[in-house]
User: Which sequence fits this backbone?
């Protein structure tokens, strides 16, 4: 019996649609990449005092930041009039440690500083009108307190790698070369001065904002390998009530874009240490680079970080004063829009000091002043100007 062979043309099943947004070759990295967001992990049911060390997940591109949402749920009041500590809910994390793939610390600080102050003053999580305050965002829910308080809360924040547009990114495509992130959670007694009858458990959600690998052109982010590091370190010496003292920073290095100082009294509570009747000096290698009244300093902070206006009723956090060097293009810190022209160049021999004569009166002396410094460590020379254009 005769048969007939019929041959059809080969077809590719499920061929992906081509991208329609590919740019012609030439130009900077951000022209050829697309900004995206993707999940990393969700860990629920963590008790206060616990640890989360979930590994991060590779993404086809470059990490710009990690978005963190922390929620306390399941609290039950009982008969308590629930009250929260001054730094709550951010102090639910007693220590946050973020390192790059080679173990270089990028952010090492308690939760109040790493999850709140870096967002407010670092320029990586929103600018102007107080939108850089995590407590101003729609996602924020303060600790439930009072006679019917449950102790529940939630907030979202950002752990930035990128400090200028496209600059400071970390490679995300190689699963064996990813950053590591660890949360050490505080005990409930640190978060609640009066805890609910049933203490909540914690849920940690981590996403990433990242740049996709460019399509159709071989281009890398500017200065790949450059990092900005935030490490909380103590200034010396401690400060007695109404004392006159010049406080020395630990030895730094690299280029400083933001200098945050925070004072705490002997009980660990944040306290305003600046004497409004005395001038404050900021010294670099013995030279008073800034010699200002405290009123001028506080005005500068409101201008630089975009709070305190009729549009932004948020005020400076108690005990915190800061100096921004992300003002190359404006009187304000414009977040990722900065050329790096006025970053403060330092090396391990540079001596930074802050001084008042005298400091303010302190009820629970001595006070300790700590510095959280945004320190850019470049690969090769620092790229100045606008690498994204």
Assistant:
């Amino acid at each position: 019996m005769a048969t007939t062979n019929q041959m059809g043309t080969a077809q590719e099943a499920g061929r992906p649609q081509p991208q329609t947004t590919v740019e012609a070759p030439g130009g900077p990295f951000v022209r050829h990449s697309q900004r995206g967001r993707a999940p990393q992990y969700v860990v629920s049911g963590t008790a206060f005092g616990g640890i989360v060390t979930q590994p991060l997940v590779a993404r086809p591109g470059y990490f710009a930041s990690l978005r963190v949402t922390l929620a306390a749920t399941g609290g039950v009041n009982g008969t308590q009039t629930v009250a929260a500590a001054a730094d709550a809910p951010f102090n639910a994390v007693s220590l946050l440690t973020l390192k790059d793939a080679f173990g270089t610390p990028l952010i090492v600080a308690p939760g109040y500083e790493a999850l709140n102050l870096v967002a407010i003053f670092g320029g990586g999580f929103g600018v102007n009108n107080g939108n850089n305050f995590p407590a101003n965002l729609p996602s924020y829910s303060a600790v439930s307190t009072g006679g019917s308080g449950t102790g529940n809360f939630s907030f979202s924040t950002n752990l930035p790698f990128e400090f200028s547009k496209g600059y400071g990114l970390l490679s995300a495509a190689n699963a064996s070369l990813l950053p590591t992130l660890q949360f050490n959670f505080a005990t409930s007694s640190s978060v609640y001065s009066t805890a609910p009858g049933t203490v909540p458990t914690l849920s940690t959600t981590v996403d990433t904002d990242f740049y996709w690998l460019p399509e159709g052109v071989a281009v890398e982010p500017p200065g790949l390998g450059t990092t900005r590091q935030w490490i909380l370190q103590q200034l010396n010496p401690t400060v007695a009530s109404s004392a006159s003292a010049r406080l020395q920073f630990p030895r730094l290095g690299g280029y400083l874009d933001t200098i945050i100082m925070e004072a705490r009294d002997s009980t660990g509570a944040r306290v305003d240490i600046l004497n409004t009747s005395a001038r404050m000096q900021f010294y670099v290698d013995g030279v008073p680079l800034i010699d200002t009244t405290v009123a001028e300093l506080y005005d500068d902070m409101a201008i630089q970080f975009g709070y305190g206006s009729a549009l932004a009723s948020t005020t400076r956090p108690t005990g915190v004063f800061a100096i921004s060097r992300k003002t190359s293009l404006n009187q304000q810190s414009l977040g990722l829009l900065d050329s790096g022209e006025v970053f403060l160049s330092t090396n391990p021999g540079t001596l930074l000091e802050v001084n008042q004569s005298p400091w303010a009166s302190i009820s629970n002396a001595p006070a300790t002043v700590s510095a959280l410094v945004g320190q850019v460590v470049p690969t090769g020379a620092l790229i100045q100007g606008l690498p994204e254009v």
Residues 226-384 form a domain with the Jelly Rolls fold (CATH 2.60.120.730). Residues 84 and 192 are 4 Å apart (CA to CA).
